[in-house]
Amino acid sequence: MISPSSEVELSELLLDSSEPIRIIGGGTRQNLGNNVQSKKNISTSKLTGITLLEPAALTLVVRSGTPLAVVKKSLDEVNQQLPFEPMDHCDLLGSSGYSTIGGVVACNISGSRRIQTGACRDSLIGVRFVDGMGAIIKNGGRVMKNVTGYDLVKLMAGSYGTLGVMTELSFKLLPKPEATATIILHGLNDEEGVAALCKALGSPNDVSGAAHFNNETLIRIEGFTGSISYRTETLKKLFSKYEISVVTDTKKNKELWNSIGNVSTFSKTETSIWRLSVKPTSGPKIMDTLLKSGIKAEALYDWGGGLIYLSVPDNINIRDHLFGMQGHITLVRGNGGGAKVMPLKNNLITEIEEGLRNKFDPRKILNVGIMG
After folding, report:
1. Same domain as 254, residue 224
2. What pLDDT score does 143 carry?
3. What contacts 24+ positions apart, CB below 8 Å, involve 14-17?
4. Could you tell me if residue 365 is inside a domain?
5. 155 in a domain, yes or no?
6. In contact, 104 and 261? CB cutoff 8 Å
7. pLDDT tens across 42-72, in order?
8. Which terminus of the chain has fewer CB atoms gathered within 10 Å of its CB, N or C?
9. Does the model's pTM come out above 0.90?
10. CATH number, domain containing residue 280
């Protein structure tokens, strides 16, 4: 394992490399994506530290190898947060190590609050990285603004390290909410639950979390204490025909939504875990299709039903049963009946990806094969 201690050292390493390289952060997501063809590993573990934190400007600049836990602790001290609520894959993937902020961006990891604040890439406002030829590139800055040419800030988020090794990242932040409440609707099946989530999101109650699992539908609201009280009563009236409970304790809310975002309910299973990104109303139909095919499946719905984690037997490739489905299917964990890990892509997307790789990594040495 090679761990460069500076951006310049990383640049020299990549400039002199001719063999495939695996880029590693904290090691918690090495099982995400397809197998990487590599001769050596480069770690960002020494590229650490917060270089700028301006609470008044809601701005953070941090080196890519910095542990996510360190970032969160520093933001807690100024009562601020990353808007996109990144998940931790350790429980789900059974991995050790620690999540880094660079790994979060590389995989565009976005949690339950995505429905309100956008994905990880939407909070990213600047990036520094070293491309496959050893060139040091900077794009964006400390404020949001329009750009011309490649929007490399957005491009790097979700690129899985195939276009360059990120060294420094800039984010816009949000203040932490004064209060949080989760309204839980009990006894709803999948179709009823997703319909309730859509209704809540379509209301003027500024919902920041919308999930459904095991006949419970969860709706989170955040903000000032007075506003939370008012919106809680409004939502209770909106769903008055259901059995309702409300969680207002801050610690309990944090534990509850961490469990949802981290998909902890499937962490102890020995099944394949699939991640589906679909139109919210499609989820119950997908479950119905699988169950009618005789497949034992469990579903956790997040993002108002637009994100689904499915737990199914390891010998089943659900893609064989969901022809014509609009959206993306990714195998996150397990064999999946021999399925490829990353989403299937059409020829146009493959052509665009190849064009970008030829621009930023013409020798094809960075995380080769991880995206299929």
Report:
1. yes
2. 52
3. 14/42, 14/130, 14/131, 14/132, 14/133, 14/134, 14/165, 14/365, 15/133, 15/134, 16/134, 17/365
4. no
5. yes
6. no
7. 999 999 999 999 999 999 999 999 999 999 9
8. N
9. yes
10. 3.30.70.240
21 and 159 in one domain? yes
Q: So what's the pLDDT on residue 150? A: 59
Q: What is the pLDDT of residue 39?
A: 75
Domain that holds residue 109: 7-175+353-360
29: Cα within 13 Å, side-chain hemisphere: 26
pLDDT digits (tens, 9 = 90+) for 338-365: 888 888 777 888 888 889 999 999 999 9
Q: Which residues of the chain have pLDDT under 50?
A: 144-148
Residue 343 lies in a domain: no
Evaluated on CA atoms 188, 191, 195, 200, the torsion sign reads: positive
Q: Name the residue with tokens 């397990």.
A: 334
The per-residue pLDDT for 372 is: 67
Same domain, 247 and 330: no
Give the CATH number, domain containing residue 207: 3.30.70.2190
User: How far is C-alpha 35 from the chain's CA centre?
Assistant: 20
Instruction: Render pLDDT for 223-273 as a digit per residue (tens, 0 to 9).
Output: 999 999 999 999 999 999 999 999 999 999 999 999 999 999 999 889 999
Q: Sign of the C-alpha dihedral, residues 41, 47, 48, 50?
A: negative
Radius of gyration of the chain (CA): 21
Question: Which residues, including other chains, have CB under 8 Å from residue 340's CB and lie 6 or more apart?
Answer: 34, 331, 372
Counting the structural domains of the chain, the total is: 3
Question: Alpha-carbon distance 211 to 68, whole Å?
Answer: 24
Helical pair 190-201 and 283-292, crossing angle rounded to 10 deg: 170
User: For residue 122, how many other CB atoms are within 10 A of its CB?
Assistant: 17
Q: Is residue 116 part of a domain?
A: yes
Same domain? For 116 and 257 the reply is no
